[in-house]
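Last lecture ended with a question: if I hand you only a sequence, what can you say about the shape of the protein? Today we answer it with a concrete record. The protein is PDGLE domain-containing protein. Below, first the input exactly as provided, then the predicted structure, then a couple of comments.
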Amino acid sequence: MDEEPARDEPHVMHDENVPEEKRARDRALKRLLVIGTIVVLALAGFVSYYASSKPDGLEKVSADHHLDARKRDQPMKDSPVGGYQVKGVHDARLSNGLAGLAGVGVVAAAGGGLFWLARRRRTERRDGP
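The predicted structure:
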């Protein structure tokens, strides 16, 4: 015997009960996320190689005013992606692109984890302990 799923569960979405407007918004959001992901990966993987190696504004002002006298090496310089290069990859363009992709992955995982935790806490508050 097939039972019909309960209709009073707010967290269960039933296709026939979802208005077309919401489905259209969901499709648009999904399209935006896919296109955004492609753009971010392209920038991190390909365009990052062409970023300037000259110091940025903060580093330049620091050097101009001799504030960089206590400058130390980066603590992560010996990490697998230290210096924006992947250790063991000898092609500079590929190494830089892979480091950029690794950075995007770390930031996406951290951000996704924070959003997941925030949503989980909000759901727990709404549903009760």
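Comments.
1. The helical segments are 20-45, 57-64, 92-127.
2. The chain has a mean pLDDT of 81.
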